[in-house]
Amino acid sequence: MTLLALAVAGRGVVDPDTPVVHADDEGFLRGRAAFETVRVYGGRPFRLDRHLERLQESARRLGLSAPDAAELQRMSTGALRSAGVANAVLRLYCTPGREGAGEPAAFVLVVSLPEDLEQLRLRGLRLVTVELGIDPSWPLGGVKSTSYAVNMVAVDRARATGGDDALLLARGAIVLEGPTSNIWWRRDRTLYTPALEVGVLAGVTRAALAEAAGGLGYRMQEGAFTLDELLGADEVFMSSSVREVMPVAAVDGQAIAVGPAARELQEALREAATTGT
Questions:
Q1: Which position has the higher pLDDT, 133 or 243?
Q2: Which of 18, 43, 58, 68 would bridge 14 by S-S if both were Cys, CB 3.0 to 4.6 A apart?
Q3: Which pLDDT does position 275 carry in this prediction?
Q4: By the 8 A CB rule, do 236 and 259 touch?
Q5: Residue 53 burial by CB count (10 A; 0-12/13-18/19+): exposed, middle or buried?
Q6: Cα(62)–Cα(47) distance, rounded to whole angstroms?
Q7: Element (H or E) spanning 157, and its range?
Q8: Domains of the chain (ranges plus CATH)?
């Protein structure tokens, strides 16, 4: 993924090579910052308003000043115009700013899409489970903060053993989510996904799939589920803004057939994104 354009609160669009984060920004010093990742289709960010709402909630739970949604929308428009691409990824960040200054900072980045998405979609992801040793109700559950070290270490562990991504578990082998994705599985015509109450992110793509599921003839069940329940599924898939709906082909080396629900939900998601619904 390549940085294509950059906008800074109070300054507008700047050269992407311009240094914009101070070394004493609390986002850098302590990872105390919130962010959102938004897929852009045909020049239009998908459900940007929902992402901005979640950004403000993450900021609130981190004790940050609420970001100015209107300014972030203007920054996004300017950055996308500067990037000059139809399909990309928006990254929105808000931080407390420099230590002791009390002046929050906000940034909008436009980056290119990963090149291997469709190849991965055809093959399916190989997941490796990583138990975090936390209770489902841990304080930052569901917060999209830049404190992503644990998530990235989990991805590194998965890749070190031949996987593509990690599947995070709470104590007792309770299924949570991927480092950057929500997890789903299907048995017959029922779709299962961990409930928000177990501390997973309220994914915007997750919500879009939940809206589409009923129209496709699927029931949806949320709850606290164990790894064994997931491994008994007919198919497994993940959802995120960047990857959209991504089938899972194996978990801890156990093969899982790529099934129809992932394909149908991917088509429904693309339809919603391209029509702006």
A1: 243
A2: 18
A3: 85
A4: no
A5: middle
A6: 23
A7: helix 149-160
A8: 3-111 (3.30.470.10), 117-275 (3.20.10.10)
